[in-house]
Amino acid sequence: MEAILLVGGQGTRLRPLTISTPKPLLPTAGVAFLAHQLARAHAAGVERIVFATSYRAEMFEAAFGPRAHGVDLVYVSESQPLGTGGAIRNAARALTCGPDDPVLILNGDILSGHDMRAQVKVHESAGAAVTLHLTEVDDPTRFGCVPTDGAGRVTAFLEKTSHPVTNQINAGCYVFRRSAIDTIAEDEVVSVERETFPALISSGAVVMGHVESGYWLDVGTPEAFVRGSCDLVLGKIDSPAMPGGPGERLTLAGSTVSPGAVVRGGTTVGRGAVVEAGATVIGSVLLDDAFVAEGATVRDSVLSRGARVGPGAVLDGVILGDGAVVGPGNELCCGLRVWPGIELPPTAVRFSTDA
Ligand code: GTP
Fold it and tell me: Residues 282, 211: one domain?
């Protein structure tokens, strides 16, 4: 089976992490986020993937080349970002399958444990134009919702509302009949969620929902990105691409964790990163060459490449950009983001995003 992987977004919600690296290539549990998706797609029977690239397009081929994780890879770039629908239409030029064959469409920022083979089976037995993976969430008011009838057919694509009719939401993994992709306008900006799916439903095309509510996470926000990385390390979701078995922490080759440090909660410690004695790092992502000094505390945070946390400093829910430095004694919390190269001098001040 062939797949299209949507990886052209700018990842604005994850800045400053995405200034130098596109979201799908961010190191997540020791490997590029996409490695987990490629390995899972391969396990589901996908043999060839077309990458739909735009933002920092050249970095994808440099990272994965012509074949990775058992899958042949092809790269198609948009000169202007075409949105999710336009990107699918544009990338379909590189597909080789027949008009009735199923094509899997994956969003490059979803970590999902669902059974893709089962989704394809639903698609084929219904003879559907499109089959969406739907997941159930506790609070559907935060998402658009997707009701289905007794036979599993999608009846509507509804915008966010305070009174949702179902807790089923679009989980961002689709099976398209190859010929259904041709209904999307060529060389135009199109949103598959806002335009293509509602249009298919109102034209009477068969759009099916495959409801499966296992592990599912959209890693598009800093909190979710950290959560996803930690969940992979802790083994809450299996990935054939994991560089080690499940555990409280993943320490990559060349990292140094002092025996007097506490590092747990699914934390990854990158190559060349150092955690000194008396430091505590919980549920966090330390990229290559990050440094946590003695007595510092880091929780639910990301330290980008070469970022440094001084002695006794406290970080809780914070993103440090590449090479950012937090001087001794600072206390940072609550979604604060420090841009690459910024240095906070030694102090005893508490910085937060609270008013
Ligand atoms: P934010 O800017 O933080 O919203 O992130 P994003 O740019 O990744 O957007 P969003 O999360 O809505 O995108 C969902 C998926 O579609 C991601 O995998 C994106 O890489 C991808 N995507 C979004 N827009 C485009 C586009 O115009 N072209 C391509 N090729 N992919 C896109």
Answer: no
